[in-house]
Every structure is written in structure tokens, then in C-alpha cells.
Amino acid sequence: MTATIGATSVVRTDAEGVYETLTRLAEPCYVVRGDQGVGVTAVRPADDSIVVAAVGPLTPESLGSPEFRAHHGVRHAYLAGAMAGGIASEDLVIALARAGFLASFGAAGLLPERVEAALRRFRQEIPGLPFAVNLIHSPSEEALERAAVDLFLAHGVRCVEASAFMDLTPHIVRYRLAGLARGPHGVQAHNRVIAKVSRVEVADRFLRPAPEAIVRQLLADGLITAEQAELGRHVPLADDITAEADSGGHTDRRPLTVLFPSIVRQRDVVRHELGYTVRVGAAGGIGTPHAAAAAFAMGADYVVTGSVNQACLESGTSETARSLLATAGAADCEMAPAADMFELGVELQVLKKGTLFPMRAKRLYELYRTYDGLESLPAAEKERLETQILRRPVAEVWDEVVGYFTRRDPDQLRRAADDPKRRMALVFRWYLGMASRWASVGDPERTADFQVWCGPAMGAFNEWVRGSYLAAPANRRVADVAANLLAGAAFTSRVQALAANGVRLPAVCGDYRPVPSAVGS
């Protein structure tokens, strides 16, 4: 239903008209009271006395921190976070870069030659466009972390997303300091670091300059220059801190509403003490416009998505895994032992619907805690291990482990030579690592063992897109998902601004519906 106020002001009073007016994000929205009741219009009425409330334009490009967008050379304050094993694939990074978003390549768990091939492809297909590469802390495979930094520096990678760090290592410090130089306005940090953390004490380490002891050792080893060592005293280790809440993969499952303000508070303490300004973004549970809008309302400089991207066509996982993700509910997640930190008892969040992986992975950790090595397993336990979980003899698995680590990290084999417990851990980590691979390639023989990293945002996303074109897995493209989430966040923010002024809209008007035209809007 429409009404006219003045010569050009068309007022919509019907629910669909109110919704359509609010979706015109580049225009203001005035709530007015007229002869036909209360309605909305995008044109300011000549008579201000009939205006009940108003909200200004709010486009997706205006959400979050303009400094984040300028610093990383993107149009949107949005990061598609890394998913290891190339699940955050080359195709995913390229598609988002071309659409004006930042994305992080999932380099963790990949051999150096695969990562190098990806970096070459980025140089060829998105020259000059920004992207990030994941640097994951690998306490049990320190050589891989070192090799990754070697590769990033050799190829001029200008942004890394550092994840799973429990403390600073020489490798992340070296990456940061190796990009420092004097500029006309002070220290220039050419190597940008986005640190994804879930603990305030870890965030604090990234908010400050690199530790002197690590810097001295890097200088002594000839890995940085004396000038870089000096400049490192004047910049924080990270440009951006991502507060990672209840996410897929590595997570402490902390509520974002608890974690984010704590990290912002610590950022402000350090800023008052040292004068550094580090941006803080929000991750974990960002799967709907309401979640993204809430993060921006809390003051997030940018938002980070993960699980929802794995369900998209460009992700480096299988069609089978994407189909499982598309049917997930918000409660279909569970914690299970992590391959990269198995011995430490670290867990990650995975999909439990349609797979037995969480249960089987937990059983392996129970065996590891209980017995001193594979040779100590009771006969019945070993038989169950070989027939139900590994589905092959332990000796065959060990042969594969030897072949794998001979290429990847021979020191692992040297340390396991006289340590039965370590050999057991490597065999069990074989299963954990292969479970991810079986999911990514869609091995039909091992569907029950799929390890699919997933947080509750996936289920929330599925609920939101139900009935829309994004409900079908075949229609889920990363740039489409990103654009709709941000357009929906802007829409939701306008609805909430009206609500704060006493305007309560019908429920049908307050929930943004995905549309293909959101891309590039």
C-alpha cells in the first residue's frame, strides 16, 4: 500500500514496501505518520513534523573500520579466514580478492611445493590485489613453521593470518621484522600480521613489540638486520587482532560477547601504555546478518567468516562434505582431538552429523593416555584399532608415516626412533590427518571418518538461507555469501537503529533475504 506526501514523497505502508525501502541501503529511510497510518519513504518529507524517526544510508562498504579497508586495500571490512589443508583454496582467495574482500589461503598442513604453486597462481591471476596466507603455530613440527616463513619471505607475501599460537615463536617474529623499514613518516611495516587469538594473554603478546630475547637471537643468526631489530622496538607485532570465539577448527568455544570486549579492553590498555593502535576484529559464529551486525555494533573493526565458506563451491573440499555442511544445524558440532597438537590434548570443533570421526578420534586419545605405545595395547584393543578405526594393519600405517615425514619433517622420525609413545602418537595423527583428507577428496570408502571443521555458524547460516537461492549447495559462492552477509548486516543495523528510536517493524520486515544482486552492490 502506498500514499503520497507532497509532490515526490511516496510512503509505503505495506510490509513488502517497508522491507524494500529498507533494502535501498544507499538511501535514507524516513518513518512518517500520515493519513494512511505509519509508513516509510526514502525522500525527506517537506513537513518535518510528520517524521517519527529516520536512519541514514548505510552501505556494506561503510561497515567496520575504514583504516582496515585502507590498510589492506579492500572495499569491505571482511576477512574469509584460513581453513587448513587448502580448504580455503586458491579459487576461494581469488574470487574474494576480485570482489573486494580479503581472504586467507589455508596453507597449514600443505607441503611447501603446494603452497609455492598457490603463491605463483596468485601472482599470475590477481596481480596487485590483496590476499593473506595462513601461518599456523606447529609446536610438534617446528621445521614446517620455519619453512613456511622462508617461503613467504622469498615470494614477498605481504600479509599472514597467524593462528593457533599459544606464545610467540621466532618465526612469526622474523616474518614481521623482516618487513620493517624507515619511511618518511616513521616505521613502515611491509609485512602485515593478522593474529587470530582466543585468549587475552596471547592477544597481549601480539599487541606489543617483539620480545627482546627473540629479536637478539634472530639478529645473531643473521635472519634480520640491525636496523630491523631496532625498528622492531617501535611497532606492535600485529596490525590486527581477531577475537576468535566459538568457531570451527581450533577454538576455545568462548562466547564472542565475552571474549571480544576483553580483548578490546586489553588493546586499549596497551594503547594507553605504548601509544600503538591495533584494530580488533570478530570471528566465531559469524554466519548470519544478525551476527555480523552484532559484531559491528560491539565495535568490531572487521568480521571474519570460516565455516560458511567451506560450504561454498570454491572451497577445497569435496561435494560430499559440502552437502553434509548444507544440512548441519547449529547443534551439530562437537570437539575432537587435533592432529597438529594431539599430544598436548588440544581439541578442535568439527561436524558430528553424518560422521563417526569425533567418537573415533576421542578413542585414539584415550588409548594414547592409557598405554605407553602400540606394543602395549591389549590384543583386543589392537584388533579394534586396526579393523574399526585405521582399517589396516598398524605396520602398514607406520610405513606411510615414515614415507610422509621423510619428505615433510625427518626430525619427527628421529625423535620417534627410541620412543614408543611418540610412534603411537604419529600413527594416531595419521588417522586424524587422513580424516581431513578423506573429507576434502570425498573418499566414498571413508565417509564415516570424515573430519569436517565446523562451528555453529554453519547451522545458523543454513537456517537463514532456507527458502532462498543460497539454500542449494550448488548456488553457494563465496563472494555471493560475503556480499549478502554484509548487505544483510547493514540492513539489520538500520532496523535496529529504528528500534532504538521506538519503531517496531513487523517481523517479516526485519530479516534480510539473500539476493544474487547483492554481489558488487
Major sheet size, sense and barrel closure = 8 strands, parallel, barrel
Mean pLDDT: 93
Strand elements, count: 18
Strand proportion, as a percent range, falls in 15-25%
Order the strands across the largest sheet as they lie in space: 6-7-8-9-12-13-15-16
Poorly predicted tracts of residues = none
- Rg from alpha-carbon coordinates: 25 Å
Structural class: alpha/beta
Cα(first) to Cα(last) distance is 27 Å
What characteristic shape results from the CA principal axes?
globular
* Number of discrete helical segments: 20
Percent helix range? 40-55%
Describe the structure.
- The protein is of the alpha/beta class and 521 residues long.
- Helix content is 43%, strand content 15%.
- It has helices spanning 15-23, 66-72, 90-98, 112-125, 142-154, 170-177, 200-207, 212-220, 226-231, 256-274, 289-298, 307-310, 319-326, 357-370, 379-389, 394-408, 410-416, 420-441, 457-465, 478-500; strands at residues 2-5, 9-12, 29-34, 37-41, 51-55, 78-80, 102-105, 132-136, 159-163, 180-183, 186-189, 192-197, 240-244, 249-250, 279-283, 303-305, 333-337, 347-351.
- The strands form five sheets. Strands 6-7-8-9-12-13-15-16 form an eight-stranded parallel barrel, surrounded by five helices. A three-stranded antiparallel sheet has the order 4-3-5.
- Helix 5 runs parallel beside helix 6.
- The longest helix has 23 residues, at 478-500.
- It is globular, with a radius of gyration of 25 Å.
- The two termini are 27 Å apart.
- The model has no long low-confidence stretch (mean pLDDT 93).
